[in-house]
Amino acid sequence: MATAVKVSDDLFAKAKIQSKVFKRSISGQIEYWAKIGQMIEENPDLPLPFLQEILVGREQIKSGQGTPYVFGEGE
Q: Looking at the whole model, is its pTM more than 0.90?
């Protein structure tokens, strides 16, 4: 369900640039930033690159390009 949200002109302008670089829609870029921000707040001890790698890994699994990690496997 889509909901309209007001954002500052500055945030919109920055999202517009980043969305072109990363081939996302402007709303997709802002959603990505929100997801990263939420992950950082929930996991303040984890570095940003690690959290980004988690997101990439999830998408790889969804697209069939990887295998899920099973804790305790391979030990």
A: no
